[in-house]
Amino acid sequence: MKVLYRSFLILVLGLASVWAQPTIPDTPAGRTFKAFLEAFNSGDRGLLEAYFHKYEPRKSGQGFVQFRDATGGFELIEIVKSARLHLQVLVKARYSEMKAVMKFDLNDAEPAEVTGSALIVLPPGASVADLNFEIDAVTRAKVIDGAIANLNEFYVYPETAKKMEDAVRAKQKRGEYDSVTDGDAFASMLAKDLQEVSHDKHLRVNFSPTKLPERIEVQSPEAAAQYRKQMEGLNCGFEKVEILSGNVGYLKFNMFADPDVCAPTAIAAMNFLGNVSAIIVDLRENGGGDPKMVAFISTYLFSEPTHLNDLWERKGDKTQQYWTLPYVPGKRLDGKPVYVLTSKRTFSGAEGFAYNLKNLKRATIVGETTGGGAHPVSPHRIDDHFIIGVPFARAINPISKTNWEGTGVDPDVKVTAAEALATAQKLAGEKLASK
Questions:
Q1: 100-104, 194-198, 359-363: which range is least confident on average?
Q2: CA nearest 82: which of 63, 67, 101, 103?
Q3: pLDDT reading at 88 higher than 90
Q4: Nearest to 75 by CA among 102, 53, 51, 52
Q5: Topology annotation, domain 28-121
């Protein structure tokens, strides 16, 4: 079983070409999609953040800037379905032949707010007609049974799994799911009900309108090639590396990608910073990822083997230790001051990176308290269209003997996310001047 901190999203590639763009309907759903498309195609982080703040405040624009750079933006091909508070559209990436269906559902408030959105990239040879969002009572019951079975078998806290089962069964008995016929909406509703009991931000239920592979835990050569291509398009999450005034290095990356694919990119970034006097690591938009990459990048900050973290897995009652690596290419930055920037959107493995360094007194954390997700997650296929991400283990820091689940990582210097970089630069300058 592969350990992943990141929340999972199933994307598959397809083909299309189109010339004329249809008219976006003048409805709440249409106006919301138009606002997203304009912000996304602009590639401007501020516009994307403004869109999410207004229309989808429970989400953020995290990662969308790099995704936009990889796709070149979207061209609207077709209005698939349109209603006042619902919209499905077909879009095409500008830089490739990738086609995707985007789906928006809004509430009837004033102003309307997005209650559910999805982006489904079409598989090779597929068309919009191959997508099926509709589900029936038999499917709903099967998904509930499958979700509960996986939680009872794998969820990190068995007593909480039982509480989640009791809550969902009570809602099912009262008929609260009976009117939900949209797969995405049902997945979101079920995940929300499970999270209301567990308060576990890693727990997810996802819906795919195309058939899922039989064994999602085994990566096919095609999926591996797709992941590599996706990471190349996103530069493995590395957004910026530069030398600031005073010979202070600055590194911003938005995910801890699989080092089997992305180690060369991480090595290039760290080697560029090999001669800095201090380093600022910007994780304000980092949503986590692979703990092996957490260990890989951490290794550059230590000269001696260092115990970073442990993961205890409920099933089998086994513990896996994570240490710095014996070797990484290039110079290490051991002894150089380190400042880690955080925000409330810093999550999962990114929180683990900050938490490890804070407890080892190797870095000064600057910014906001992080999101509070410390349980690695594993995907489990329920049926052809539904998948549940089950948090199956918990992090145990060798110093604190606990983790950041539900609490987040408190910064050493608490400022707003917007002020974090300038604050860290000031602290680094003062530190270097005092030597």
A1: 100-104
A2: 103
A3: yes
A4: 102
A5: Nuclear Transport Factor 2; Chain: A, (3.10.450)
